[in-house]
Amino acid sequence: MGLLKDLLRDGKFKFGFITLCILLFLVILSFFSPYNPTIWNVAPRDLPPSLKYILGTNSQGQDIFWQTTFAIRNSLVIASIAALFSRVIAIIVGLVAGYRGGRMDRVLMSINDSFLVLPLFPILILISTLIKGRLSFVSLGLILGIFGWSWDARVIRSQILSLREREFTFTAILSGSKTFHLVLKEYLPFVIPIIFSTIINNMSWAIGMEITLAILGLSNLEIPTLGTMLHWAISYQAMLLGLWWWLLTPVITSVLLFVSLYLLSVSISEYLDPRTRIQRIGIAKE
Amino acid sequence: MRDNNELLRIEGLTKVFSLGSIFSRVRIIAVNNVSFGINSPEIFTLAGESGSGKTTVARIILGFIEPTRGSIFYRGNNITNLKNEEARNLFRRDVQAIFQNPFETFNPLRKVSDYLYETCWSFKVSRDKEESNKIVDEALKGVGLSLEEVRNKYPGEFSGGQLQRISVARALITKPKLLIADEPVSMVDASLRMSIVNLFKELKEKNNVSVIYITHDLATAYYVSERIAIMFRGEIVEMGPVEKILMEPKHPYTMLLKESIPEPDPKMKWQESIRLLTSEEEEYLMKGCKFAGRCPYVMDICKREVPNNVLIDGVIVKCYLYASKSEKTAV
Amino acid sequence: MSILKAENLKSFYILDILGTKQSVMAVNGVNLEIKENEIYGIAGESGCGKTTLIKTLYGMIEPPLNVIDGGVFYNIDGKFINIFSLSEEELRNIRWEYVSYIPQGSMSVLNPVSKISDSFWDFIKAHSNYKDRVEIEDSIKEHLNAVGLPLEILNAYPHQLSGGMRQRVTIALATILKPKIIIADEPSTALDVVAQRGVIQLLKNIQQSQKNTIILVTHDMGVHANISDRIAMMYAGKIIEEAKTEEIFENPLHPYTKYLISSLPKIGDKSYKVSAPGSPPSLINPPTGCKFHPRCDNFKPECKLKEPKLIEVSKGHKVACLLYSKEMEQ
Q1: Which residues lie closer than 8 Å to C260 by C-beta, 6 or more apart?
Q2: Which among A168, A176, A185 has the least Cβ separation from residue B104?
Q3: What pTM was estimated for this model as a whole?
Q4: Closest A-chain CA to B119
């Protein structure tokens, strides 16, 4: 694809993309795992990395390598659900409020701002303590999604507000464009870069939230995620016992995940930015 | 003075913008009691400097802004507050527009031809893809371009002059009766201006299309139009045949405008220095005649009350200088 | 006495987009000689390279702009010095006292949160050696009086002034150190007709009282007719005609100039006017030979092959067109 080739010219994208591909490869591997990640004592405990157990084993008798593949998979699933759900809400709210204006705008923005000022963390802790244990990761994703849309809805709305004043809006109206079509065809191309960069940011945020909640012991600890792995490593005092591979694996994996997501988000949004796109359009043809 | 052949009639159009917060509101009267009529066909110039209200008048006619007061009649029908979707559509078929900045007229991320096709479709000018291609090609040929040159290209690949011509082509697809051109050539190179201005002339002579030509460039206004209205701070201060108004201006502001044009002729250089405004807000908020602050013929009454329209020598002027010499007072 | 010379000047923008290098040949072999005590106008349309030319004349070369060939010489104390041979610091010292530059859209150059008097004060302190506050204030007032600006503006903020007044303040700022050369890029283009007149007249007054040189760049031929002494027409990065203002308007020689002059509308003249056909060429891939040949009525096959040089055809009137060079050869 020409698009991919273009993007790969950017060093940042290359690194992020390759890292993410490696991580995704691990996710695919999880479907071939010889061990069920929720069962303990399938392997000898506390073994350092060796040829048989690539990343060693933990105090619960689980192979860390295969645990990690599940962990990445579940963390990404939670993050994707959260990000997609919140994007959809943000786009709808932002577009409608921005283009309609007037009372609709005021109502939507009051709801939006209420969500913005809610103290997110205490509420999540509250919810988690109440539902603890029974919180599946899909539900966690949805909850995180409900709290993640308000900032971007405002950003999208202000972009629409400024686009509304530009002359091509008038041209589109004079060409007979109806409201819905106008917003879709004229404004969406400008809004997409925002959405893309925020999707990835949102995913990072969701992963971070999940890890935090898990470390505090507030999520379903049976499901292997990056957060729960860290939780168990910490509560079993892996550091003190010298089981560095147990602690380091989720830490490094998380860092790699965050960094690759960040690099992807920055390079993609730079590529999609209307200003650089416009520059590229004419030159590519000459 | 209602003429039954009139295409468009504006009466008492007023638009007030209210700015500021709860504690201090400023009212800017952008358009103040503007009235004029357009015949079919004719090229009518609405002239004035930036801030005179001419663009606001255009936007009100096109339905993008709602007037505070006043009415608009199209072919005798009052269309001032047209809410009916169908009626609006019919109006948009007949009344099209082109704007000042050719680079902003089209979305830089969309192909330029998309707008042309969309106009065909929305107004049901064509029934299928093939017919659309033909109609778009014809419209482009009418402005000196062709579908082949324009197809699949983005605005950034054209020059300002070309974009402006494409903009005109788009506006003509629905075969409108009235074209509103808001500063169509001010951002186009001088050597290419006349080709666009000549287009308007052709439209009027061959296709019976009327044009409202909005500009601050009196030279092209003289060249292309029959009647002209001079706007100053939201009001029409002088209106009539372009020969009379630009060759023998009556209103002191028109005189100042005419003298300030740099003639492209080294033998006609400016002679005296003029007094310039220090701040613009002062003039907007003045009582009485808004030009009183700079007028060389200012009298006491000018500062107290807004002058009435006076009909003299076939021209309508809003100035106390002519109050006693009028033939009759116009509405 | 010449005060500024450009010899074989070539400055291109070197762009690197998506891996391919492209050169925008904005100034493509320019020779000019500007004298003391004159207003030298540079005319031409968008994309002809005039803004790049004056940036180069001012020495404002920043990537992607590169000077490929030639030199710009200032006459400093009797000697012609190539400004590209000077260091950044030496160049900065000459600026503002020797040559000042008023860029396009410069009325937005005034600091919106400072009063005008502070802007003047900062400027003078930064570019000259005056130390005494009273002395500086006096010189500011004297200058404003000399250029006909009311002293009240000193206490105002930029947003309180009209566009025309802001532009005049910017010009006053640029000329307070009495530079020998003032380069003005489209000083009045964004202004209304009446304000434009005020700005242009200000420039003329300054030139007449300080007897310096103004290089005025604008596409508005009416403005040139009013104050320029000589005009250089630019097209596709080259100067294609140069003569006294009256000559350019009454006896234009180059086909492009002829088209331009005849297409200018005038009040009182309803005769049919025509534009030049076609549009200005790309500076990345300009036509071969004479850059105007695709649009020219007098096109001959050699126009595609040979590039005409700027030659003096009559006293003070230079043209770059094969129509005239042939006559010379005969």
Answers
A1: B190, B191, C221, C233, C252, C276
A2: A168
A3: 0.80
A4: A175
